[in-house]
Amino acid sequence: MVTAVSKTLRPAAIAFLIALAPIAARAQSYTITLKDHRFQPSELKVPSGKRITVTVVNEDPTPEEVESRELKFEKVIAGKSKGVVRFGPLAKGRYPFFGEYHEDTARGAVVAE
Amino acid sequence: MLGALVIVFREVIEAGLIVGIVMAATRGVLGRGRWVGTGVIGGVAGATVVALFAGAISEAFSGAGQELFNAAVLGIAVVMLMWHNAWMARHGRAIAAEMREVGAAVSKGAKPLTALAIVVGLAVLREGSEVVLFLYGIAASGTSGMSLLLGGVLGVAAGAAFTALTYFGLLAIPTRHIFSVTSWLIALLAAGMAAQAVQFLNNGGFLLVLGGTLWDTSWLLSEGGIVGRLLHTLIGYTERPTELQLVTYVCTLLAMALLMRLLRPAPPRREFPAAAE
Hints:
The complex is a heterodimer of chains A (113) and B (277).
Chain A: H1 2-25, E1 28-35, E2 38-40, E3 43-46, E4 52-58, E5 64-68, E6 73-77, E7 81-87, E8 93-99, E9 107-112
Parallel strand pairs in A: 1-4, 3-9
Antiparallel strand pairs in A: 1-2, 4-7, 5-6, 5-8, 8-9
Chain B: H1 2-25, H2 32-52, H3 54-63, H4 65-97, H5 103-108, H6 110-140, H7 145-171, H8 175-204, H9 226-235, H10 243-263
Helix pairs in contact in B: 1-6, 1-7, 1-8, 1-9, 2-6, 3-4, 4-6, 4-8, 4-10, 6-7, 8-9, 8-10
């Protein structure tokens, strides 16, 4: 029964994702680098009221889980790899984020203005 | 070492809470240990695979693969939990009343146990892949790794102990109430998972409606602390919920309550002594 349902739903789900995909493209893009368990830059200025895309490049050999309760995201980024984080639109203010595996050094913030 | 212990413990207890509730919810069902065990082993194997392909998953769907994956895992778990509760609404009373002669119910019980084994597997998969990645990072970083690795292993052990605590805590509930308590726990668990899933879809850029933050209770109870984390897993506590998360949460609870009411057997026939009442 489950297979029958998933077969029926699969085309619908794919159509749904294709229809929504362009929304993700309309965002302001930024890049942050993670090296020696520190974010560079550690403070990122972004415009308020816009959807924001940040590519986090992890130059460390170890994985990191980048997380922000203020920005409502969590993302695991493997060592020597990169990951895309999306959030917003934001109200003006300061939104901290951190690397959960190296919380003492991996700290940063997004400043929406 | 302590840092590693804490990080691993935090991940393990999230899956551990779910395993503990599932064990309590299947009290008296023969062979449930095998089902739950299969779920845990499958979850650990899956977590290793997910950790191995973390990079590839992350890059899929123009960088939103991880979000889609998490949303899908949570979504499937929600459906399985609903399935279990629906079945329990129909047969739970009989099981509670005839805990000893449960043989007949067990053959019918094959379905919800599959559902719960999948829930356990998915919970272990999700949290486990983060533990595997973290431990891998430690192992890969070399020299100072051993004490950190020991911390990680102790973290897993502490998490397992916590699971046992959850289970035996729930067992303290009298038999005649345990199924209604675990049904409600499972309903809240599912609602929280559904609310998490829609936020992952928002993060992935797939579901950008009702994204406004409703309130901020981080001053009262931070999701970063241990209590906040436990409540996050248990009832879906979120310090800054979006409108969509609240709507999803309430709708999941309503759907679950409706399903359980619709499937509740017609007026109970008093064929057995009414000891359960």
